[in-house]
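User: Fold this; tokens only.

Assistant: Input:
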Amino acid sequence: MVDFSRYSRLEAVKEIGRQGVEKLAGSKVLVIGAGALGSLCAMYLAASGVGEITVADFDTVDLSNLQRQLFFTEELAGKSKVLELAERMRSLNSDIVVHSINSLIRRDYAETHFGDFDFIVDGSDNPSTKAIVDEYCFRSDVPCVIAGVSGFKGQVMSWKPGCVRFSSIFGDGAVCSGVLPCGIAGVVGPTAGVVASVQAAECIKYLTDSGDCLFNKVMFFNLASCEFRVLDID
């Protein structure tokens, strides 16, 4: 039973309404990565009442994460990111179901362990995982959003069956537009926040059938120059 008083501000959005809130409550989402992108996106989805959320990550909390991963604390250094994040999500919204996968995602693992999801969010920071997500979603017909950050720059692209794939634009395992893992290129915290927010919005829009998702499009932005652009790729 959905507590609509909890989601009154979301229900008030005319594109979503009560029907959209109900759709979110009946949805299952997988978030890959519990770092800067995945943690914020997962919390937004939990707060929005997505009924069942699974978060996958193998990493542990490091002090260097705290500059942009706001749901961890110094006392959690060395602890599992995905397990700690799952607890934060449950404490935020006890009405939802949260699962955790404390493992590195490989192709064989995805094929045998991923369940029946309505949408997948890639919040990883390495190109090989993005390639796995792209391939799995294509083979399973599961819509997804894949994103990346580097310094002040970020990019987001969504996919559903019949649309242009991530690998069709950036190649299998390629690093898109020079966006390197943040451990190499560095990242400004708010950049990750913008990307994660867009990813959460893409997921919510798709699940509630509201707004226009970034299908056959790539959104690029540079917070250093305040430039945003969306490229059509169909």
